[in-house]
Amino acid sequence: MEEIGGGAYGVVFRARDRQHDNRVVALKRLRVQASDEGMPLNTIREIAILRRLVGFEHPNVVSLLDVCCSRRNDHEISANGGVSLENCRHISRQLLSGLDFLHSQCIVHRDLKPQNVLITSQQHEMRLLPEEQQNFIRSELALIEKESSDASHTGYILQLAKEFDEFLALRFPDVKRYGLEGSETIMLWFDTILNEVDKDNHVTIGMTHRGRNNLLVCLLGLRADIMFGKMSEFGDFDVVNAPLTEQAVVAFEWGYSIDHPNNLCLWEAQFGDFWNQAEVSVDTLVTCGEQKWGLQSSLLMLLPHGYDGAGPEHSSSRVERLLQMTDSLENDNINFQIMWPSTAAQYFHILRRQMVRNYRKPGAIVMPKTLLRLPESRSTFAEMGPNTSFQTVIDDPSKNMKAKRVVVTAGKHYFTLVNERAKRGMQNDVAIVRLEQLVPFPAKEIQETLARYTNATSFVFSQEEPRNCGAWSFAKPRLDFISGRRFSYTGRPEMPTSATGTGVMHRRQLVDLLEDTFKL
């Protein structure tokens, strides 16, 4: 047996079936880890696709126990000095034929690459391997009406009734999984907000890959009322495909939110390089429109922000610039709000709060996409039910008032610190406090929280951003003044860019900042 290909969810081997004439088969070993996004749902989906195709015979689509090639295509091409024009045409015709067959079965292949196209070395016969990232749309939609009342169902629309009049959970393809307490809950969608707005109002978001998957359903001619029919009882949910002219789009969304104050209007920047192009509109309209013209906007900008070793534009939302554009008051009379939630429940409460309060205020939600699949950031219904609300400051769950050091942080960095503290066995020595909102700065809440740690002799603000970025310059004077203590800094050093973009350097910097954070 030899490895002939692989991907994110598994590895393909060349093997021989000894029970059937020792014939050559492609053996795929699937990697299933529940902590990864889409697992094991994508694995189950791939198996379902292959089982469904057993009853069909097509010469250009691999099926269960079908004969495959002996080597990966890129190896084959390299070994033979390329592919002739005639063979290239032959392979292309087979590829198109295989794709046409998959489309006829409502299967969309979204990961075409050499590792997923198997070719025999002699006759150049092609087999297209159905990858795990396909959208097996129709079979999932068929389950909706049949199992929509089943709380364990993970289809597109799930109706639940638990401590609420009616809950709707919408899961976009390959993005969200939904469950009850103790299950694979990642995030509760904006469901109860639909119950707050009138039928004539709209909940709109700028389109990302989730929205494009939605659009794909419509393009395939599937019934939109199956996916969204039950939502018409509350309000309208609109997904808008925004062009890549971010300056104009944000200006439009700001104006739309002013004319429609009862609508929740969200604009998501897929990464920092999208948000950077919208800064002119943010500077001149969003952050100061109320001061200039007395116009209240409810626009929320969803800005991905988190350090995982990627480059600057894929790591930072330049939150330091947003902080500079706020008037920084410690009350609700501010020009712009900035939230940094670390859990699904906190995210849910921010969105709900944006619509149920009696005034409108624009703002930004800063959080990384990795929290969508981080198990520690999951929340239960109990954290989103009655008598719960957004917490601007979250104290250390251990409530260890004998801690020698108090670390204040924000966002995803909290989970990095918690894991490192556990590795070092310092749960009794270090308390970690989360700032979930930066503007308006929660002065009262942070003062009450820090005052509990009477035995602490060291106070630290830790961030994953460079020293000249992130929230350090904004939070430092406020924390010092409120607590009467002198906060020290742990984080990356000053840098000309917001992130290195180099994995080795990223990990080296992380080791250094963690050492500084827990060195008593």
TrEMBL record:
A single Gene Ontology MF term assigned here is:
oxidoreductase activity, acting on the aldehyde or oxo group of donors, disulfide as acceptor
Keywords carried by this UniProt record? ATP-binding, Kinase, Nucleotide-binding, Oxidoreductase, Serine/threonine-protein kinase, Thiamine pyrophosphate, Transferase
Boundaries of every Protein kinase domain copy: 1-390
Q: Which residues bind ATP?
A: K28
Pfam families from the xrefs?
A: OxoGdeHyase_C (PF16870), Pkinase (PF00069), Transket_pyr (PF02779)
Please tell me which top-level EC class this enzyme sits in. transferase
Q: Which reaction does it catalyse?
A: L-threonyl-[protein] + ATP = O-phospho-L-threonyl-[protein] + ADP + H(+); L-seryl-[protein] + ATP = O-phospho-L-seryl-[protein] + ADP + H(+)
What cofactor does its activity depend on? thiamine diphosphate
| EC number(s) given by UniProt | 2.7.11.22
Can you tell me which family this protein belongs to? Belongs to the alpha-ketoglutarate dehydrogenase family. Belongs to the protein kinase superfamily. CMGC Ser/Thr protein kinase family. CDC2/CDKX subfamily.
- Protein name, UniProt field: cyclin-dependent kinase
Biological source species = Oikopleura dioica
Question: What lineage is on file?
Answer: Eukaryota, Metazoa, Chordata, Tunicata, Appendicularia
